[in-house]
From TrEMBL:
CDD domains, A to Z: RPI_A (cd01398)
Residues given in the record as substrate binding sites: T32, G33, T34, T35, D87, G88, A89, D90, K100, G101, G102, G103, K127
Signal peptide positions on this chain: none
Reaction it catalyzes: aldehydo-D-ribose 5-phosphate = D-ribulose 5-phosphate
HAMAP family the record matches: Rib_5P_isom_A (MF_00170)
Function in brief: Catalyzes the reversible conversion of ribose-5-phosphate to ribulose 5-phosphate.
Annotated pathway: Carbohydrate degradation; pentose phosphate pathway; D-ribose 5-phosphate from D-ribulose 5-phosphate (non-oxidative stage): step 1/1
Active site per database record: E109 (proton acceptor)
GO biological process terms on file: pentose-phosphate shunt, non-oxidative branch
Organism: Roseiarcus fermentans
Name of the molecule in the record: Ribose-5-phosphate isomerase A
Keywords of this entry: Isomerase
The protein's assembly and partners: Homodimer.
Entries under InterPro entries matching the protein: NagB/RpiA_transferase-like, Ribose-5P_isomerase, Ribose5P_isomerase_typA_subgr, Ribose5P_isomerase_type_A
Length: 234
């Protein structure tokens, strides 16, 4: 319980640092997950004090939270370019490559990140890793042809010399994403070449998106017990 409270405090500290990047009039992307939730809470306080921003959410859950806080929300179709997206991550490496999708929102998260001029990652220190891959890599797939798609993913992983164990999230009652897809969590261990893996996954029919975010994050705020460390810069 105490450890959980401490972790929530760290997440909020990281979120507070990202809030310093927000300027009046900005177009913002709002991430998903327990850390992003703190950012949306803090942003809601600023909006209540008069800050003017317009935002796009990366999930239905975040949209509901933001609307509840009276944060002005719109769609990416109405506002296709964003100034800044603030989101959490499951892992962050020293080159600001990420694994995301633990909360199942990776597809919208990547679309929103790609629409943003900058992305800031907020995380507690447990998410900072030397090498990606201890966290299972989420791969979002179309339900149609699941078994076939899964075999293609397994073959691709074997071809890269990195066979992994694939687990359908939710098991017999699969987890369904906001886009109506399933998620295969790929237990890989340390990923030798994230760029190569990302490229191999992207070309498999039935794969909608994978949780490797490469080249999106410009800065990460990593909250540890004593301080918030900044990786990269805007
Ligand atoms: O990618 C995500 C959701 O799809 C989240 O950002 C990621 O899972 C981190 O979540 P949390 O802040 O709850 O640890």
């Amino acid at each position: 319980m105490a450890a959980n409270q401490d972790s929530e405090r760290l997440k909020r500290e990281a979120a507070r640092r990202a809030l310093d990047l927000v300027e009046p009039g900005m177009r913002l992307g709002l991430g998903t997950g327990t850390t992003a939730r703190h950012f949306v809470d803090l942003l809601g306080e600023k909006v209540a004090q008069g800050l003017k921003v317009r935002c796009v959410a990366t999930s239905e859950a975040t949209l509901a939270q933001a609307k509840g806080l009276n944060i002005p929300m719109t769609t990416l179709d109405d506002m296709p370019e964003l100034d800044l997206t603030v989101d959490g991550a499951d892992e962050v490496d020293p080159e600001l490559r990420l694994i995301k999708g633990g909360g199942g929102a990776l597809l919208r998260e990547k679309i929103v990140a790609a629409a943003s001029l900058s992305m800031a990652v907020i995380a507690d220190a447990s998410k900072a890793v030397a090498r990606l891959g201890a966290f299972p890599l989420p791969v979002e797939v179309v339900p149609f042809g699941l078994v076939s798609t899964r075999r293609h993913i397994e073959k691709a992983l074997e071809g890269l010399g990195a066979p992994g164990e694939l687990v359908l999230r939710g098991g017999p009652k699969p987890f369904v994403t906001d886009g109506g897809h399933f998620i295969l969590d790929c237990r890989l261990g340390a990923i030798a070449d994230p760029e190569r893996l990302a490229a191999a996954l992207s070309v498999i029919p039935g794969v909608v998106e994978h949780g490797l975010f490469i080249g999106y994050a410009r800065v990460a705020f990593i909250a540890g017990a004593d301080a918030v460390r900044t990786l990269g810069r805007l």
